[in-house]
Amino acid sequence: xxxxxxxxxxxxxxxxxxxxxxxxxxxxxxxxxxxxxxxxxxxxxxxxxxxxxxxxxxxxxxxxxxxxxxxxxxxxxxxxxxxxxxxxxxxxxxxxxxxxxxxxxxxxxxxxxxxxxxxxxxxxxxxxxxxxxxxxxxxxxxxxxxxxxxxxxxxxxxxxxxxxxxxxxxxxxxxxxxxxxxxxxxxxxxxxxxxxxxxxxxxxxxxxxxxxxxxxxxxxxxxxxxxxxxxxxxxxxxxxxxxxxxxxxxxxxxxxxxxxxxxxxxxxxxxxxxxxxxxxxxxxxxxxxxxxxxxxxxxxxxxxxxxxxxxxxxxxxxxxxxxxxxxxxxxxxxxxxxxxxxxxxx
Length: 346
Ligand code: SF4
Known about the structure:
Elements: E1 6-7, E2 11-13, E3 19-21, E4 29-30, E5 41-44, E6 47-50, E7 55-56, E8 59-63, E9 77-81, H1 96-99, E10 109-110, H2 113-122, E11 127-130, H3 139-151, E12 155-160, H4 166-173, E13 178-182, H5 188-195, H6 200-212, E14 216-223, H7 231-245, E15 251-255, H8 270-282, E16 288-291, E17 301-302, E18 309-314, E19 317-324, E20 327-328, E21 342-344
Helix pairs in contact: 2-3, 7-8
Bound molecules: iron/sulfur cluster.
The site of iron/sulfur cluster has 12 residues, from loops.
């Protein structure tokens, strides 16, 4: 059942019916009636309420590659949904009609956690994705959906910017099987100016996921010309990933298209993404991809040992796979990720 007055967690009750939301690093202080930066958590009569519990902006069955996740059951369909609002304020948001929506009419579909899990199962989706907007702000709903999914053997995927405080982070990610985390840039200045947030909490989330959980992790960086595409920044970012997270974490360099409040910068040229990919490979990352452009090389997976193509993709479609029992069929090297037992010429 949908519940527009769902009592949220991580609210600290203060004097005069004020509440502090401690879910994300913003720690919004809310007077009675006020909504947080994310717009969906509200102080109603001195209680912190999650106004979007059980309400979705729509459902879609996508290829899992679209999340993007390239090493988590490649080629499988995933039931995707989101709600409204976001706790970052990216000026270049590519989903701003959902993330910045103040129109709850958008949340047309009411769905209980059980209904979502059953819908995934019925439609033969091995996983459900919390996506379209950041699940951090609807953590309580996402956790309940994840529990129902796990009851039915359905896996859960979070597509997130990782902007969350340590305690709720632990609670949220306990229920997640795979995550794609947006690392929007590798400078505090960029996060402050273009996302209205901070870099360090995101780096902490990445380290937490990789080093303290069994969650499968991939990273996406939207490359914006002249803003986060310098050789130095890309070098620093990918060296940090290799050192702190390991060389098996896949990274996707994705093309920006003018959107929301950044309309005066052209779309990212393919050459810039190819350059970013080359820098990451030079720094030892083994699985580096380009996205949002036509790029056969950048969208395929290569064996880190024999360098042969082991998964060929066309756009988001998996064309051919040469992985068997998690190993490259040409040289028997293990490939990082989760794969169905047999993956050959799908
Ligand atoms: S989750 Fe929303 S209400 Fe809570 S601190 Fe973050 S932006 Fe503010």
